[in-house]
Structures are given as structure tokens and as C-alpha cells.
Specification:
The complex is a heterotrimer of chains A (596), B (223) and C (239). Chain A has 596 residues and is mostly helical. Chain A has a two-stranded antiparallel sheet with strand order 1-2. In chain A, strand 1 and strand 2 form a beta hairpin. Chain A is globular. The termini of chain A are close together. Chain B has 223 residues and is α+β, with helices and mostly antiparallel strands. Chain B is built from 3 helices and 10 strands; from the N terminus they run H-H-E-E-E-E-E-E-E-E-E-E-H. The two termini of chain B are 34 Å apart. Chain C is mainly alpha-helical. Chain C is built from 7 helices and 4 strands, in the order ααββαββαααα. Chain C has a two-stranded antiparallel ribbon with strand order 1-2. Chain C has a two-stranded antiparallel ribbon with strand order 3-4. In chain C, helix 2 packs antiparallel against helix 7. The longest helix of chain C has 33 residues. The relative contact order of chain C is 0.17. Classes of the chains: A mainly alpha (596), B alpha+beta (223), C mainly alpha (239). At the A-B interface, helix 4, helix 12, helix 13, helix 14 and helix 15 of A face helix 1, helix 2, strand 7 and strand 9 of B.
Chain lengths: 596, 223, 239
């Protein structure tokens, strides 16, 4: 009786009735309630937005490297964006604003959370689907709608926002000062819709992890990827509504004539920053925690060793998530906020280095005395560890308030965020996409191309972003259209040119990945059932896994990282679902009094 | 080509650059530790057939060590940083003998108001100059920042000074220039499409030069 | 499944699941309410910050807003919370009916159909009164951007800025309409959801003492919205 209670997802109103019946193409792939299909939908959509964000970045790099020169391909841009193929200042500001918006909200966040929380959580905790499959489907469609609204702002009069992805008020609140009308409204509406999508997704992930773990999948037998995604979902549920509230007030400032953020009529300019960063800093961890979790799984697999210090890894995730709520002021050291508040925010910010250090050293500890396999996911995971370390360490410069004074709002911070978001999250995503590709599509991505892509990306990535630290130290401000306006920036212009060439190469190399991804869909090698010889529950299923995953709810017999365990015999892995003669079936958690 | 922070031009540069260097050394050690460890492990423990990884779930002692060391380092760094932070930015840190200037930011220019002969702002002999900041070397100067429209940020790299000018707020930032010559003042907060050209020239004078300039301004009008 | 042996406190509307010890719909609603708390925190927190920053732009309580009418409206909403509790208790006891005679008592006994309908009516009544109030306020010149230029209210405010708020009370209007508007939106969503349940689940008698999850979950939401209103009424109308 109890196992039935396990097996039945709630609230979807019998999404499983369709389990055995053949489904039409539309039901199966478009309006699907299957968590795996929804994950794949998110994957395609957010990879598309990643490409859009990348194209915007290329235009930014053209302008910074070659200010005032006609951009190749610029002739397709309308007069309002480029004249004689030369990017206009207002279009440049729109480029930086939308590059940030697309990358944060529509590429990295859905790639990590939308794709992998959806795809991995039910598979890894041994359940049949999400707790609320239809809410899950709605979450995807709302995210797509939000993305389309945001994209539409390129095609409206006056174009998209011109106030940066952070939308600092009163610039963003006053159309007469920013010159943006419809674009600003679309940004706010899109963010409100996205927030709704995110909350719907997150409440699903939280409920599923709490209530739908397979028998034997205790809290401390959950893989770190699931832990990270679970904690991320909690951050999402609590952080996104704050941004929604702020975006609504900003929208009202633009359309209803309110003055929440405009001091001329009693509003407060800093209120927007407090609201935005109160959301924004947890958001930063939404963008990195899932990456850390998935990298942990992949490093343990690649090292053929249990993760070093599993429990402290879990507590480090929780610690980072908790500290994430009390550090938002470190974005505002120069904002005119009370300097004493700056001191407290500095201390809480510096403390984040502690759980981050635990994670990095534990990854190293995992590799120590391992038997390393350098498959493509492992290479990217190692790339993640080395690059995230640089990103994390460069954050300490800005956390120390006096040093932040010269570095704040310069290219140094641009370097920092790209080391964390590209070197961190995106390398983790290359790893994760390659790793779970067979589970999604039943085929392997090409290993040779994957390795070539990794090494070239690693090189060009560092050539692009490392020099940004130096031009930032030299004082080059963020978001300026033409650095050569300033005499003190002129000497370092050659470095800007170098960065631009590297960035173009970096962008070009990504087509290797795109080609590999698309080509392997049809021509990739057929995947064996457990291609990486991993311990996760998902590998007990065929590739790709059927709708509903398991026929019968599986049992879990051990933790997720029993690589090279003595009991494993000649093999160097021992999956969570393997029942050894000594193993007893788990007793399902007792039901509270009054239950069945 | 410059590979370091700009040349020091104010009294803040000393402690800030020293702190920067200290953090660079600390983070440098951590970085070398991690990267060398990573490369060593990648080479030393590369997979070979027939070999099995060492089965361990961790070591509490090692973890305590690498939790405690960063924690202590960070707290110490926080305390030292805070000492200088208070000296530079705290509201009470502005020296009482500082020479006060008004800096009003608007899209896309800096309006600098000088106190005139009486040395006091808000009196009749004040005069305002667009996009030119004149100060005296080795004398504490306080800029009273305000903004007309959106948020701007007062940034002179050589002085290691940056402070947002926020509409609806009056913020005072101070510095003491140590080098005469001409510098640049830029806007460091996105303030609209003209953000990049919101630039003012900064002149650090000797006291005599400054007096002469003041006299010339008083006699000859605004620019 | 012997419901008869259970005490009232232990009576679950649906078998709990391992994990949190509650069924997923309820857990999901709790998580959603947590996120809604954050949403209202953003609005109310901004209100507090703005009001402390610019206290002159607020009118004295009762000068502009109709406190007695809204007080009555608050009472209506509290009543709807009570009737929601009665609806929940009714279905837990298996009373699926509308009204039924009880021997020896003058008043008829209400079932789920009765009490949920009362809740819907109270909720709809609350929104209607709020709408009427909005129309009247806007008619008087009170808008989200402050007092409309040339309106009587604006003239009052210029003559007596202490009573009616200075700066023609822009912040007053902005915060008032944003906070009460989003609360009204929440009430409207609740009413629509209850109507949906009423026609798809309650009238066809799909709920039973063994499974009345929908009623418990919407009840949670409804009490939350009620609670938010009590906070809003206090800080917007009374202080």
C-alpha cells in the first residue's frame, strides 16, 4: 500500500494515465508533462538564447576593440542602431543591457535550473515524475513567453532597455531620461512572467524532493547535484518574488506615473538597488550552486572515488545559500549607502569564501589518489574547478571595501562575473550537457570534437577574460561606449583589441559544440545503458528513459558515490540501485499517525 | 601599456594599493595551491588499467584545516580593510580643514561649484565651471556630490576615489591629492547613452597656481 | 481506512506521504505561500522605507480614505475566513450537502456547499466594495500618481498639507494603489479558484471525508490572503 503512495505523483490529475497509451507528437514533445521532455524543451530554448546573448557580446566586443569603425554585418541593423555600420551609443548601451539580461535570465538560469532540475531531480531520486507535472509544463511555457516578450523589445520603437541589466533607477524609471518607452515596460513584464515561471518550477522541485524520494533515498544519500538543485529551488522561491515586486513598481513608475524610485517626487533611488540586489545576490547563487552540484557528481565519477567530505559539501551548499541573503549590500559599497552598513556587508561577504574554499578543496580531495578518467565531462569539470577558483578569488578584491573603491564598476568586475558565470557555470554546463546527453537522446556526443572544443574554449576563454582584470585595474569603466575618449585609457587600447580578437575566436569555437550537439542527435554513437559507469539511479533505466521512468518504484541501497568500494568486486563502481546479497530492502519511511 | 593600478595621486593610494597587493599575494598563494594541486593530481593520478582509486569518504582533520585557514584569513582581512574603509569613507572622516567644492552631476556633464574668495559654499561669490575640477595639491578637499537626474559616479582613478552621486541625496567624499598635473574625471555608473563622454578635466595645482586661477575666474567670467 | 477510530486532530484529508509528512498539494501550497510572503515583503518593505523617508507625503488616517467602509469590508473578509473553516469542518465530517434540517434545532445545519458559497460571496463582496472604493477615490482625484491636478482633493492638500499630505501626496497614492491592488488581485484569484472548485468538485460531490485536499489547500491560501489584508488595513488605513 505504501509503495503505491510513493508511486503516484500528486496533483497532476492523472498525468500517468497516458503512461502506456501511445501519444501524438504534440502531446509527447510539445505539450508534454513529462519532466524529461520539459527539460529538453528548456535545453533547446535556452541554448538559443545563449546564442542570442553571444551575438550581442560579439557586437559589444567589436565596439570596444574597434570603436567607431564599421562593423562587419552591421548593414543589417536599422538606422536606430547603427549608422553606416557604426554602432550608435544608444545601441551600445542596449547591447550591454540585453546581453546581461539574456545571459542571466534566459540562458544560464534556465540551462541550470530549468533543464537540470527538471531532468535530473526525478531521475536521481528515483521517482516517476514531478509532483505537479502540469504546473511544470506551465512553467516552461511561461519561461518561453517571457523570453519572447524580452526578444520583442528589440522590435519596438526606441528599442530595448538602456539602463543595464540591473536597471538602476531613476534612469530606468524615467522614459524622459533613458529614452526608452515600450522596451522598459516589456522588460518589466517579461521579468514578472519569468518570476512566475521560476516560482512554479521551484515549488515543484522542492515538493518533489521532499515527498517523492524512492524508498532508501534518505536525505544524505541524495547526490550533491540534487542537493544543490533543491537548495537553489528554495532560493528561487524566495528571491524571484522580490524581483517581481520591484519590477512591478518600476513598471508603474514608467506607465502609471508613480514615483517609487524617483526622488523628484518623494521616491528613493537606492530603494531599487536594495530590492534588486536583495534578489540579485541569491540569484548569483542560483546561477552557480547547481553547477557546483553537477560538477561534484562528475568529478566523483571521473576520479572513480567517493566525493571527499560529502556532508561538509552539503553544509557548504546550505551555508552559501544562507549567506547569500545577507551580502546584497556589497554591490552598493559606492552607492552612498551608509558606510557602516558597508562594513557589515564586507564581513558577511568575505565569509562566503569559507564554504567556497571547502568546496574547492573537497573537489581536490576527491581527485587525490583517484584513478582519473578524462572523459569530456570530467575535463570540463576540471576546467570549472580551476576557473571558478579564479572567479572566487577575484571576488575577494571587491569584497574588501577599500580595494573596491578603484575597482567598482570597472572591467575588473566584468572579468570577475565572467570567471564565475562563464568559467564556472558554463563549463559546468558543457560538462553536464555532455554527461547526460545519452540519457536525454540515447546517443553519445562525439568525444574528439568534445575534447577539441574544451581545450580551445579553455584557451580562448582565458585570453578573453583574464586581460579584463588588467584593463579594469587601469580604470576602464563598465558600459562605456568608447574607451578612447579618456586619455588614461588610450594606452591600454591594444589590450582591448586583443580581448576582442580572443572573444571572436571564443565565439567561433562554440560552433564546434553546437555542431557536436546537433550532429550527435542523429549520428552519435548509440549509448550503452551506463556509459560513464556511474552510480546514479538514472542509469538503471534505458537511454532515453521512457515516460514515467520506472515501471515500479525502485529501491535505493546506498549513497551516490560508492566508487571503488571494496564490496564492488572487480568493478570500480557500485550503483545506488544495485542490490548486493548483503543488502536488505529499505523500509519505507513510516507514515504519520492517522495515515494508512 | 599599463599592467598595474594607475600612478598614485592621492593619500588614499598608499593603503589601498598596499591592501590590493596583500590580497593579490593571499589569493595568489591560494590560486597556486589549487592550480598546482589540480595539475599534479591530473598527472599523478591519471587513470591506468588495473589500478583502483583509494576508497575514502574524506578526512575530518583535513577539512577542519581548510575551513579554519580561510576563515581566519578572511576575518583578519575584514578587520584590516575596515580600518582603512572608515578612514576613507566614514561620514566623520572628512577633515575639518577640508576645502569644500560642490559637484553637481547631470546627463552628461559635471558642474563644479567653487566657493569663491570667502572659501564658503552657498554664498554670493560662488561660481560654477562646467567639466573642470581644480584642486590644490596636499590639501584635503571635500566634494559635495549631488545629481540632477540619474545616478552618476565620481571617479578619478589616480586618486583611488569613487563615489556615486545620487539624486535626492547629498553625499560628501573627500581626498587629498599628492601630485600636481592634469587628470581625468569619469562617470563610473551607467547614466544613459552619453555615459561614455561624461568626462571632466582635473587640474591639481600648487597653492599659488590655484590662487592665480581663482583670481582669473573672479575677474573673467565662468569658463 | 477506519476514519471512525481517528480523533479529530489526526484526521488527514489525504494520506500523508513520506518526507514532510504532508501530502504534496499542501506542501506545494506552503511553498507557494512562502514565495508570496516574499512578494508582499517587497511591497510592504518598500512602503515602510518610502514612508519613513518622506513622511510628509501621507495624509492623516481617515482624511482621504473611507476607514469605516473599509473596516466593514475587513469584517467581511474575516467572516469569509470563518466560513472557510466551517466549509473545511463540514467536509471533514462528510457533510456534502447545502443545508439540512437537524431534529430539535431551529437553524438548519450547513454543509460544504453552503459554507463554501458563503466564502465565495464574502470574497466577491470584498472585491466589489474595494472596486467601488477605487472608483470613488479616483473620482475624487486620488490616483496612483497622487492627487489629480485641479481636483478638490488637490486643492485641499495645497491648503492643508498636514492633513492631506504634501507634494500633492504622490507617494501616498502610489503605495496605496499598489499594495491594495495586488491584495485585491490575490482575493480575485482566490474567488475564481473557489468558483472553479465549486462547479467542478463541490457541486458534483467529488470531495469526501477521505479526500478533500482541494478545500484544505484553497483554505490555506484564503487564510493567508486574509492575514495579509489585516496587516495592510492596519498600516495603510489606520496608521
Amino acid at each position: 500500500m505504501t509503495s503505491v503512495a510513493h508511486a503516484k505523483p500528486e496533483g497532476g490529475g492523472g498525468a500517468h494515465d497516458a503512461h502506456h497509451a501511445p501519444m501524438s507528437f504534440w502531446r509527447k514533445y510539445i505539450f508534454s508533462t513529462d519532466h524529461k521532455i520539459i527539460g529538453i524543451q528548456f535545453l533547446f530554448v535556452s541554448l538559443f538564447f545563449l546564442l542570442v546573448g553571444g551575438l550581442l557580446a560579439m557586437q559589444i566586443r567589436w565596439q570596444l576593440g574597434f570603436p567607431g569603425q564599421p562593423m562587419p554585418g552591421g548593414s543589417i541593423l536599422p538606422e536606430t542602431m547603427a549608422v553606416n555600420r557604426v554602432i550608435l551609443p544608444e545601441y551600445y548601451v542596449q547591447l550591454v543591457s540585453m546581453h546581461g539580461t539574456f545571459m542571466v535570465f534566459f540562458a544560464i538560469m534556465p540551462l541550470l535550473v530549468g533543464v537540470y532540475a527538471n531532468f535530473l531531480i526525478p531521475l536521481k531520486i528515483g521517482t516517476h515524475d514531478m509532483a505537479f507535472p502540469r504546473i511544470n509544463m506551465a512553467s516552461f511555457w511561461l519561461a518561453l513567453l517571457a523570453g519572447l516578450i524580452m526578444t520583442a523589445s528589440f522590435f519596438v520603437p526606441n528599442g530595448p532597455i538602456r539602463s543595464g541589466w540591473t536597471n538602476y533607477a531613476p534612469l530606468a524609471a524615467r522614459p524622459d531620461l533613458s529614452g526608452v518607452t515600450v522596451g522598459q515596460m516589456l522588460w518589466c513584464i517579461s521579468i514578472v512572467v519569468l518570476g512566475l515561471s521560476s516560482v512554479m518550477g521551484s515549488l515543484n522541485y522542492i515538493t518533489t524532493v521532499i515527498n517523492h524520494r524512492a524508498p532508501g533515498m534518505t536525505w544524505f544519500r541524495m547526490p550533491l547535484s540534487v542537493w544543490a538543485l533543491f537548495i537553489t529551488a528554495i532560493l528561487g522561491v524566495l528571491a524571484l518574488p522580490v524581483l517581481q515586486g520591484a519590477a512591478i513598481m518600476l513598471l508603474f513608475d514608467n506607465v502609471l506615473g508613480t514615483h517609487f524610485f524617483d526622488p523628484v517626487a518623494g521616491g528613493q533611488a537606492l530603494l531599487w538597488q536594495h530590492l534588486f540586489w536583495f534578489f540579485g545576490h541569491p540569484e548569483v547563487y542560483i546561477l552557480i550552486l547547481p553547477a557546483m552540484g553537477m560538477v561534484s557528481d562528475i568529478i566523483a565519477n571521473g576520479s572513480r572515488k567517493p566525493i571527499f567530505g560529502y556532508h561538509s559539501m552539503v553544509f557548504a551548499i546550505i551555508g552559501i545559500a544562507f549567506l547569500g541573503w545577507i551580502v546584497w549590500g556589497h554591490h552598493m559599497f559606492m552607492s552612498g549607502m551608509n558606510p557602516t552598513l558597508g562594513s557589515t556587508f564586507m564581513v558577511s561577504t568575505l565569509l562566503i569564501a569559507v564554504p567556497s574554499a571547502i568546496k574547492v578543496f573537497n573537489w581536490l580531495g576527491t581527485m587525490w589518489r583517484g584513478n582519473l578518467r578524462f572523459h569530456v565531462p570530467m575535463l570540463n569539470a576540471i576546467g570549472f574547478v580551476s576557473m571558478f577558483t579564479i572567479g572566487g578569488l577575484s571576488g575577494i578584491f571587491m569584497a574588501a571595501t577599500p580595494v573596491d573603491i578603484p575597482l567598482h564598476d570597472t572591467q575588473f568586475i566584468v572579468a570577475h562575473i565572467h570567471y564565475v558565470l562563464f568559467g564556472g557555470s558554463l563549463f559546468a554546463l558543457f560538462a553536464a550537457i555532455t554527461y547526460w546527453y545519452p540519457k536525454m537522446f540515447g546517443r553519445m556526443m562525439n568525444e574528439g570534437i568534445g575534447k577539441l572544443h574544451f581545450f580551445l574554449t579553455f584557451i580562448f576563454y582565458n585570453m578573453t577574460f583574464f586581460p579584463m582584470h588588467i584593463i579594469g585595474m587601469g580604470g576602464q569603466m563598465r558600459r562605456i561606449y568608447d574607451p578612447t575618449v579618456y586619455d588614461f585609457l588610450k594606452p591600454q587600447q591594444p589590450l582591448n583589441v586583443f580581448i576582442s580578437y580572443s572573444a571572436f575566436a571564443l565565439f567561433a569555437v562554440q560552433f564546434l559544440f553546437a555542431f557536436n550537439f546537433l550532429w550527435s542527435l542523429k549520428f552519435g554513437k548509440k549509448a550503452p545503458q551506463n556509459p560513464w559507469e556511474d552510480n546514479g539511479m538514472e542509469w538503471s533505466l534505458p537511454n532515453p528513459a521512457p515516460h514515467g521512468n520506472w515501471e515500479k518504484t525502485p529501491n535505493v541501497y546506498r549513497g551516490p558515490y560508492e566508487f571503488s568500494a571494496p564490496e564492488a568486486g572487480d568493478k570500480d563502481y557500485l550503483p545506488q540501485y544495485t542490490k548486493l546479497p548483503t543488502d536488505r530492502d529499505p523500509v519505507p519511511a513510516p507514515l504519520p499517525a492517522g495515515g494508512h | 601599456m599599463r599592467w598595474w593600478l594607475p600612478d598614485a595621486g592621492s593619500t588614499f593610494a598608499g593603503p589601498i594599493d598596499a591592501l590590493f597587493l596583500a590580497i593579490l599575494i593571499i589569493t595568489g598563494i591560494a590560486l597556486v595551491l589549487v592550480e598546482v594541486g589540480l595539475v599534479t593530481f591530473v598527472i599523478r593520478y591519471r587513470g591506468r588499467p588495473g589500478r583502483k582509486a583509494f576508497y575514502t569518504h574524506g578526512s575530518t582533520r583535513a577539512e577542519v584545516i581548510w575551513t579554519a585557514i580561510p576563515a581566519v584569513t578572511m576575518v583578519a582581512l575584514g578587520l584590516i580593510s575596515n580600518h582603512y574603509w572608515v578612514l576613507i569613507k566614514d561620514k566623520k572622516s572628512v577633515p575639518p580643514n577640508a576645502y569644500h567644492l560642490g559637484v553637481h552631476a547631470k546627463q552628461f556633464e559635471w558642474q563644479v561649484t567653487y566657493p569663491g574668495a570667502d572659501g564658503k559654499l552657498g554664498t554670493a561669490d560662488d561660481f560654477t565651471v562646467r567639466n573642470q575640477l581644480h584642486v590644490v595639491v596636499n590639501e584635503p578637499t571635500a566634494v559635495e556630490l549631488s545629481s540632477e537626474d540619474v545616478i552618476h559616479s565620481f571617479f578619478v582613478p589616480e586618486w583611488r576615489l569613487k563615489q556615486d552621486a545620487v539624486p535626492g541625496m547629498h553625499i560628501t567624499a573627500w581626498f587629498q591629492a599628492t601630485k600636481t598635473g592634469e587628470f581625468e574625471l569619469g562617470c563610473a555608473e551607467l547614466c544613459g547613452m552619453g555615459h561614455y563622454k561624461m568626462r571632466a578635466r582635473v587640474f591639481v595645482h600648487t597653492p599659488d597656481e590655484f590662487k592665480a586661477w581663482m583670481a582669473q575666474q573672479a575677474a573673467g567670467g565662468t569658463e | 481506512m477506519q476514519t471512525s477510530t481517528m480523533t479529530d486532530a489526526m484526521r488527514p484529508p489525504y494520506p500523508a506521504e513520506p518526507g514532510a509528512g504532508v501530502y504534496s498539494n499542501k506542501l506545494g501550497m506552503w511553498v507557494f505561500l512562502a514565495s508570496d510572503v516574499m512578494f508582499f515583503t517587497a511591497l510592504i518593505g518598500s512602503y515602510i522605507v518610502l514612508r519613513f523617508g518622506m513622511p510628509t507625503q501621507w495624509a492623516q488616517p481617515g482624511a482621504v480614505l473611507n476607514v469605516p467602509l473599509t473596516g466593514l469590508n475587513t469584517f467581511l473578509l474575516i467572516c469569509s475566513s470563518v466560513s472557510m473553516v466551517k466549509a473545511y469542518a463540514a467536509i471533514a465530517d462528510g457533510k456534502k450537502y447545502f443545508l439540512r434540517k437537524v431534529p430539535g434545532q431551529r437553524l438548519q445545519d450547513g454543509g460544504l456547499k453552503f459554507w463554501l458559497l458563503i466564502t465565495i460571496i464574502c470574497g466577491a463582496g470584498f472585491v466589489s466594495v474595494q472596486l467601488v472604493e477605487y472608483v470613488k477615490l479616483v473620482g475624487h482625484g486620488f490616483t496612483p500618481s497622487g492627487y489629480r491636478e485641479g481636483s478638490l482633493l488637490a486643492e485641499h492638500a495645497l491648503a492643508d498639507p498636514v492633513k492631506y499630505g504634501a507634494g500633492v501626496a504622490g507617494m501616498y497614492g502610489s503605495t496605496f494603489f499598489t499594495m491594495t491592488g495586488f491584495h485585491g488581485f490575490h482575493v480575485t484569484c482566490g474567488v475564481i479558484s473557489m468558483l472553479y472548485l465549486y462547479f467542478t468538485k463541490v457541486l458534483p460531490e467529488k470531495y469526501s471525508p477521505q479526500d478533500y485536499r482541494g478545500i484544505e489547500v484553497i483554505g490555506l491560501y484564503w487564510h493567508f490572503v486574509d492575514l495579509v489584508w489585516i496587516i495592510l488595513f492596519t498600516i495603510v488605513y489606520l496608521i
